[in-house]
Structure formats: structure tokens, C-alpha cells
């Protein structure tokens, strides 16, 4: 079977990581872990975007080489992904030789097939956004707004990609492939925007203006425009450039990508227009186009998370203060897939302390303590009574719902399914009151059956928590002393293995409090 191929945007190395970057990588990691749990081979690619004007400028400001600057920031990403448990299989750093070779090979091939041409363009140019501006970018007052930063008049020779040659193809492709972008409303947005895009795409920068990029193999006075370079990472690090090699065979097996996980800001035009048109020009068939999974943006107290306004939340500090489990759980729980969310430490603590601590943690703790106290860790149920069979059937239905939600990348919904399952199990503890059953010898069979049912429910809950909070889920399963259920089976089963003995309960979700002095600025 084809490996499940999942990628994220590659992060700019002009500034350190913030909460938005962490969210996207955790999201992709959860989906990757989920697919592995389903028994799928996974190829999870993420990395860093190291070229471009912003990196060159930041390096100049610090008086160091752009490579050194990009490497320094890349280290911060690498270290954060380690802390957050991001289980990527391959690392895309765009200064790597394998990537450079692939970009140059693609450029040469496109030029040979007349997809590229050289021309002179005169116009307004935004230094900050690294792009030429047209009248469409002017505000109602006729001026270019502050979002474009410094705007200069530029007269420049450059290389162009015949994007306009693809416009009919793209319109038809978007019409006939409604699942190219998830969520649906983003595909609608893309369709509308794509219809308005005219002209070709400038894919080079003269070295006199920008030297920090991949040189055009057929015109050494130019480097490749950073987006044309960056988008190619999705194939160059998957083996595309290694024609006739094992790497290329791997690429043929992996491609197309099942999820390009990206934020809403880079759908139009980069991933929604440029990228499919580039692939189309390279000769990829319609069926070989990737799937784009577009997530929303995190804000901080309603404001854009941005370096310039100083409200950056450092995910490494959050992970150190509250732990990786709480941070991963909160980000996945509070953002509805595709929608924006607002970051708050209060909510992070609330989600952790209530749903993980009070609900799941308490369920595991009570279940194991009672099993040890009343049955020396080893309940021996006879045939289960109807109400407990119904309870486990509801758990099996939850697993099915979870699988369908996670297949649709609705992680928040999958977590909600887990929370509902935990609440049902806690309700069973309260309604069946094992402490009362333990006092009545006539209820001995019922007590065994209830404890066994609770252990099985707790195991299912931990299984569903695995992709989101792997460390905590593994610890729960260790205490329960059972392996996770296989998500490939439709029914988790209703019996404990022969000779089952539970482990010792230890708190998995210690209560969190906001430390004196704030973590977020
Ligand atoms: N380098 C380009 C992507 C090239 S992909 C071939 C880029 N880098 S970025 O560092 O600015 O953004 C990386 C990812 O983080 C993007 O998918 C972007 O949407 C996402 N986010 C940036 N800020 C974000 C939030 N505030 N919230 C959620 N995601 C955010 O774009």
C-alpha cells in the first residue's frame, strides 16, 4: 500500500518559532501518529525555508552570513520539534544539496520545454513582501498600504513562468476536483481567486538585489524566487530528483501527498495556484495533485501573533512551564479544524486540569485503586450483564466515530469523542458505586464485571489519546498494564486477557497552575 504522505509548510528562518508554527507541526504530527496507529506506513516531511530576502536582510542586520543566520534559526525549530515530540521522518532544509539539485533540474527542464522566458518588467515593488505590486494592491486612497512596507520603483529583467498558460487547466481542475482543498469553503475561495489571476509568475531575482537563493542553472546572474524554490521541497525531499535511483522509486511510491498541512495565509496564490500549475507544467497528471489541508490562525488576546507587535508566545517556554502533554492537548482541542482560535493560558490550564486531570486521570486512578483494593489487581468477571455489554458497545461505537473523524482530519472532534467516552465511564463509576458493591457478597460477580468494564474503557480512552498526547497515553496504558487496542479492528473486545493484573496508579496529569509572573507577554 502507498505510504501515507504528510507534509507541513516549511517555516521561514528569518525569525524564531511561535505558537502558530507549533500548532501546525503538532497538527501534522497527530495525523501522522494516527495513521501509524492504523497500521499505515507514514512519510512525514517537515522543515525550514532558508532562502529569500528576509533571511538575507536579517543576516545583514546581525553582520553574519545568511547561512549562519538560517542555521541558527533552524536549530531553534529542530530543538522545539524535539521538545514537542514531532515524529517527522524527513527534514527539508532548502539549502541542502539534494534540494538545490532538484530545483535546478526542474528549472532546466521547464526552460527546455518553453515554460520559462526572460523579459523586462517595470513597476512598484514591495521590499517587505518581495513582490511587484499592481493597481489591485492599492488601497481605497490609491496608495499602497502599510502591509507592503517600503515600496520602490523598479525596472528589472527577470525570468518568468508561463502561469497564464495554466489558467484554463486550473479552473477546470478545481471544478472537477472538489476535494483538492479542505475545508470546502477554502476551495470556494480559491476558485474565485484563481479566476482573477492573470499574467505570468516572475521566478527569478537578479543577484544584484538578492544573492541568497538557488542560482538559475542557465543564467548565473539570477537566483530562484523563494516560493518557486520552497514549494519544490515537497518533492525534492521525497526523492523526486534522484532519477533512476532508489530515492526516485520511493518518490513514485509516496506521491501524491495525502495532506499538505498549511495555514490559510499561504493558500492563495502560493499553494492553491502556483504549486498545482508548477506540477502540471512538470508533467504531473490531475490524479497526481496533492491534497491541501488548510488550518486557521491562532491569535493572542484577539491580536495577530506577530514579531513586530511583540506578542509572540514562545512555545518552548510554554512546553517547559506546562509540559508538552498540556500544550499539545490544548492546541488540538481548542481549535476547530480550519477555523481561527485565540490563545489563552487560562484555557490551556482549564482543558488540562478538567478534561485530562479530573476526568481521564481520575477515571484511571479510581479504576486501578479500586481494582487493587477489592480484587488485588485482578478482576475475574463471568459473563457481563446487559448494561455493561451496552456500555462497551457504546465504546466500540466511539472508536468507529473517532476513526472517521480522524480520517477527515477533524482532530478536535476526535478528542471530543474521547472525552465523551471518559465521561460515560466516570458516570458508570458513580452509578454502579463499586465501594457499595464491595460490601455486599451477593454483588461479587457484579463488582468483577464493573471493574473489568472500567479497565477496558480506560484502555480505549488511552488509545484514542495516543496521537494527541503520546507520552501520557503510554503511561496510562503502562499503569493499566494492557497494550492499546488496534484501531484496525472495529470492535475493541470485551474481555481481559487471562491472568490479567493491573499496575499501580500514579498521577499522570498533575494539576497545573499559572506561575507567578506571566508566561505570555
Ligand atoms: N516559508 C513559508 C512557507 C513555504 S511552504 C513551501 C511560510 N513560512 S512561515 O514561517 O511564515 O509560516 C509557516 C506556517 O505557519 C504556515 O503554514 C503559516 O500559515 C503558519 N502560521 C504562521 N502564523 C500562524 C498563526 N498565527 N497561526 C497558525 N498558523 C500560522 O509561510
Supply the CATH superfamily name of the domain at 343-521: Isoleucyl-tRNA Synthetase, Domain 1
Shape field: elongated
CATH architecture of the domain at 343-521: Orthogonal Bundle
Query: What is the percent of helical residues?
Result: 40-55%
Could you say what the CATH topology of the domain at 343-521 is called? Isoleucyl-tRNA Synthetase, Domain 1
Mean pLDDT: 95
Broad CATH class of the domain at 343-521? Mainly Alpha
What structural class do the secondary elements suggest? alpha/beta
Number of helices: 18
Measured between the Cα atoms of the first and last residue, the distance is 48 Å
Question: What do you see in this structure?
Answer:
The protein has helices at 19-37, 53-62, 66-83, 97-112, 167-176, 184-196, 226-231, 233-236, 246-254, 267-282, 315-322, 324-334, 345-375, 386-407, 411-432, 434-437, 444-465, 470-480; strands at 4-8, 11-12, 42-49, 90-93, 116-126, 131-133, 151-161, 181-182, 201-202, 204-206, 215-216, 219-224, 259-263, 292-295, 298-300, 303-304, 341-343. With 521 residues, the protein is α/β, with parallel strands linked by helices. The protein has a domain at 343-521: Isoleucyl-tRNA Synthetase, Domain 1, CATH 1.10.730. The strands form 4 sheets. Strands 1, 2, 3, 4, 8, 13 and 14 form a 7-stranded parallel beta sheet that branches. The two termini are 48 Å apart. The model has no long low-confidence stretch (mean pLDDT 95). The structure holds 5'-O-[(L-methionyl)-sulphamoyl]adenosine. Residues 9-12, 20-21, 23-24, 49, 230-231, 233, 262-263, 265-266, 297-298, 305 line the site of 5'-O-[(L-methionyl)-sulphamoyl]adenosine (MSP).
Amino acid at each position: 500500500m502507498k505510504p501515507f504522505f504528510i507534509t507541513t509548510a516549511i517555516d521561514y528562518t528569518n525569525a524564531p518559532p511561535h505558537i502558530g508554527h507549533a500548532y501546525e507541526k503538532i497538527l501534522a504530527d497527530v495525523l501522522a501518529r494516527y495513521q501509524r496507529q492504523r497500521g499505515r506506513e507514514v512519510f512525514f516531511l517537515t522543515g525550514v525555508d532558508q532562502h529569500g530576502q528576509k533571511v538575507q536582510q536579517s543576516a545583514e542586520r546581525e553582520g553574519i552570513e545568511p547561512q549562519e543566520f538560517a542555521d541558527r534559526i533552524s536549530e531553534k525549530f529542530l530543538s522545539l520539534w524535539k521538545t514537542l515530540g514531532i515524529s517527522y521522518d524527513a527534514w527539508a532544509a532548502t539549502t541542502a544539496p539534494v534540494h538545490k539539485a532538484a530545483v535546478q533540474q526542474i528549472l532546466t527542464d521547464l526552460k527546455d520545454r518553453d515554460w520559462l522566458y526572460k523579459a523586462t518588467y517595470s513597476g512598484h515593488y514591495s521590499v517587505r513582501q518581495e513582490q511587484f505590486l499592481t493597481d489591485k494592491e492599492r488601497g481605497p486612497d490609491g496608495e499602497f498600504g502599510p502591509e507592503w512596507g517600503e515600496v520602490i520603483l523598479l525596472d528589472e529583467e527577470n525570468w518568468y513562468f508561463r502561469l497564464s498558460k495554466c489558467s484554463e487547466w486550473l479552473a477546470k481542475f478545481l471544478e472537477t476536483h472538489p476535494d483538492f482543498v479542505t475545508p470546502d469553503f477554502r476551495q470556494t475561495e480559491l476558485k474565485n481567486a484563481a479566476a482573477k489571476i492573470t499574467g505570468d509568475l516572475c521566478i527569478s531575482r537578479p543577484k544584484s538585489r538578492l544573492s541568497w537563493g538557488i542560482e538559475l542553472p542557465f543564467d548565473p546572474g539570477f537566483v530562484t524566487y523563494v516560493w518557486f524554490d520552497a514549494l519544490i521541497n515537497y518533492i525534492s525531499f521525497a526523492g523526486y530528483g534522484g532519477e533512476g535511483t532508489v530515492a526516485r522509486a520511493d518518490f513514485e511510491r509516496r506521491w501524491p501527498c495525502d495532506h499538505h498541512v498549511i495555514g490559510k495565509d499561504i493558500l492563495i496564490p502560493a499553494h492553491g495556484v502556483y504549486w498545482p500549475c508548477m506540477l502540471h507544467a512538470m508533467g504531473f497528471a490531475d490524479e497526481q495533485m496533492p491534497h491541501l489541508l488548510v488550518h486557521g490562525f491562532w491569535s493572542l488576546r484577539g491580536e495577530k501573533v506577530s514579531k513586530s507587535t511583540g506578542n509572540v508566545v514562545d512555545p518552548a517556554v510554554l512546553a517547559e512551564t506546562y509540559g508538552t502533554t498540556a500544550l499539545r492537548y490544548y492546541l488540538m482541542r481548542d481549535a476547530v479544524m480550519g477555523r481561527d482560535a485565540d490563545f489563552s493560558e487560562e484555557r490551556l490550564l482549564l482543558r488540562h486540569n478538567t478534561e485530562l486531570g479530573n476526568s481521564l486521570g481520575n477515571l484511571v486512578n479510581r479504576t486501578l485503586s479500586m481494582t487493587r483494593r477489592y480484587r488485588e489487581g485482578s478482576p475475574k468477571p463471568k459473563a457481563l450483564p446487559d448494561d455493561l455489554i451496552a456500555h462497551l458497545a457504546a465504546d466500540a461505537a466511539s472508536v468507529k466515530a473517532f476513526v472517521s473523524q480522524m480520517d477527515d482530519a477533524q482532530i478536535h472532534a476526535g478528542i471530543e469523542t474521547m472525552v465523551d467516552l471518559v465521561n460515560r465511564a466516570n458516570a458508570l463509576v458513580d452509578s454502579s458505586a463499586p465501594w457499595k458493591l464491595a460490601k455486599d457478597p451477593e454483588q461479587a460477580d457484579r463488582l468483577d464485571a464493573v471493574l473489568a468494564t472500567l479497565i477496558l474503557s480506560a484502555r480505549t480512552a488511552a488509545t484514542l489519546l495516543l496521537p494527541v498526547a503520546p507520552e501520557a497515553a503510554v503511561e496510562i496504558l503502562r499503569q493499566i498494564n494492557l497494550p492499546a487496542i488496534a484501531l484496525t479492528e472495529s470492535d475493541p473486545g470485551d474481555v481481559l486477557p487471562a491472568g490479567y493484573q493491573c499496575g499501580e496508579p500514579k498521577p499522570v496529569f498533575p494539576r497545573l497552575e499559572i506561575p507567578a509572573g506571566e508566561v505570555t507577554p
